[in-house]
Amino acid sequence: MTTFRLFFEELLALVQKYEKQQVMIKVEEDLDHEFVKIFGEKIDSIFRAKTGLNDVSELAYTTAEHHPYWALLYNCSEISKTVLEKWNDKISSEEMDEIKWHIKEIENSCKKLEDES
User: If we measure between CA atoms, which residue out of 55, 7, 51, 14 comes closest to residue 29?
Assistant: First the structure.
């Protein structure tokens, strides 16, 4: 058993201890990639999407223009950020203009990738 898998087993025991005390905890794991997410009862789907998008955005920011798909990832993540931030509100005209600009950048990136094929 790997050290990570041992850690995960101990983590599950701790989670079960708190569940017996009526604390809602959700655990998601991918042990093949040594990855665990833990959520408390206040988590909602919008916040989960935002935290996942933060990882996508970080990849886009750190990859910069060194990868051919960088611009696609970056512009899609920027649109997604705006949509998630405004999920329960209206998107302003300025934000809509920004979304349209990102869409044009996505189209330009697609054309560039097609031309390179």
Answer: 7
Q: Which residues of 70-93 are buried (b: 16+ CB within 10 A; e: fewer)?
A: bbbbbbbbbbbebeeeeeeeeeee
The yes-or-no verdict on residue 65 having pLDDT over 80 is: no
> Is a pLDDT exceeding 80 seen at residue 28?
yes
What was the pLDDT predicted at 89? 97
Distance CA 5, CA 27 (A): 14
Q: Compute the average pLDDT of residues 10-27.
A: 93
What is the residue whose two structure tokens read 């905890």? 25
Integer CA distances (angstroms), 109 to 32, 73, 80, 81, 92, in order: 33, 10, 17, 19, 26
Q: Which helix (H) or strand (E) holds 37?
A: strand 35-40
Torsion of CA 68, 53, 59, 2, to 10 degrees: -120
